[in-house]
Amino acid sequence: MAITGWFVALVALGVVPVVLTGSGWAIVGWLGVVAVLTVLDVALAASPRSLTVRRELPGAIRLGESAPARLTVVNDGRRTLRGLVRDAWQPSAGATPTRRRLSLRPGRATTLTVTLTPFRRGERRAGGVTVRTVGPLRLAGRQATHEVPGAVRVLPRFSSRKHLPSRLARLRELDGRTSVMIRGQGTEFDSLREYVRGDDVRSIDWRATARRDDLVVRTWRPERDRRVVVVVDTGRTSAARIDDEPRLDTAFESALLLGALASRAGDRVDVVLFDRRVRGRVQGATGPALLSSMVETMAPVEPELVETDWAAVPALVRSVTSRRALVVLATTVDSPGASRSLLAAIPQLSRQHLVVVASVTDPALDETVLRRGTRDEVYRAASAERARLDQGRVAAALRQVGADVVTGAPADLPPALADRYLALKAAGRL
């Protein structure tokens, strides 16, 4: 049984006969009347269990976007049902409204629409649907919960896709329109042309020159069908929030932008989500299927509160490819102690592969360093400066053992990693 505010008001109204009569029996009689009316109201209320409830959910929602979720309610009983319906969603699903008033005649059906605007990635689940009916006097009623489970997969935001057109334009300029004059490990022969002042003499083709009157030089272009392996760290450090976004989500944004760009460049992209075990893997997908597979794999993955096993990463990369590849480690460049296992794994990778470490930095550290007006701010500035120095030491150590390091704020890291990929392409290193 469920009571309403009218029941409370009716009980409080019993003060009037007590004041008028001055007898304690007046309140007893009043409460008896209220009890009888309440029992009668409950008996006349429609049964909430006589309803049939069905859900209609969207397949997937991108983080930050909205989509409707529909709830169909059918009254299978013999009485008109009046009351309230509450659809229980996880708070992070951003469901509005969750409570709706309902008036439904026997045999009729209605559809209630809830707008979902999730603010967290992953599986957002719905619980039971609670129906509370009231009687004709609106004093009390009945309540029951229908188990109607449902879930919506919230995909990564991929807001960095706004940087893709400009990087694709640079890629088109690099691949086919602007040839590379110096041959590198990641270049292939493109064409011959006449020598002009400023060209590198090492690119002169002496055999072709002997057949002509003018000097002839070779031009090169970046190779296609290269391998790009992205290893995303899902360990405990990826759970920290920077600019109200987990580090893991920034790593996903970087991997998505790099994957879209490298796929357009004709390279093969493989993605592994790893801490002490493989949490997700994308292999063999190309073209539009690559991004679709990546977002579907990334969506349910949350940070694991364990230390990442970097000693297992070289073997993991070997299981993905035996060819030379660009290996991107999306992780955290933090204190030297926390990065010791990462530093130990880099030399094994850099012997065969080109290694890039991508790490998100906290822009609040730069702001904290500049604020020194009070004693507390001075201590905070000293702590922030120490954190920045530690990050710089780890980045320098990574470069010494053969890795390239890309850092940036959450909004800056994805395009910075894409720019580094294009620079490696242009230099013929990939």
Give an overview of the whole structure:
The protein has 430 residues and is of the alpha+beta class. Helix 2 runs antiparallel to helix 3, helix 4 packs parallel to helix 6 and helix 10 (363-370) crosses helix 11. The N and C termini lie far apart (71 Å). The model is unreliable at 177-183 (pLDDT under 50). The protein is built from 12 helices and 21 strands. The chain has 3 domains: 1-155, Immunoglobulin-like (Sandwich); 159-163 and 225-426, Rossmann fold (3-Layer(aba) Sandwich), CATH 3.40.50.410; 187-222, no CATH class.
Give a nutshell description of this structure.
By secondary structure, this protein is an alpha+beta fold. It has twelve helices and 21 strands.
**Strand coverage percent:** 25-35%
For this structure, what is the CATH class of the largest domain?
Alpha Beta
Q: What's the story with the biggest beta sheet?
A: 7 strands, mixed
The counted number of beta strands is: 21
Morphology: elongated
State the low-pLDDT regions, or none: 177-183
* N- and C-termini, Cα separation: 71 Å
Structural class: alpha+beta
Helicity, in percent? 25-40%
Q: How many independent structural domains?
A: 3
Looking at the structure, the CATH topology of the largest domain is Rossmann fold
Tell me the name of the CATH homologous superfamily of the largest domain. Answer: von Willebrand factor, type A domain
CATH architecture term of the largest domain: 3-Layer(aba) Sandwich
How many DSSP H or I helices? Answer: 12
Radius of gyration of CA atoms, rounded to a whole number: 33 Å
Q: Give the overall average pLDDT.
A: 87
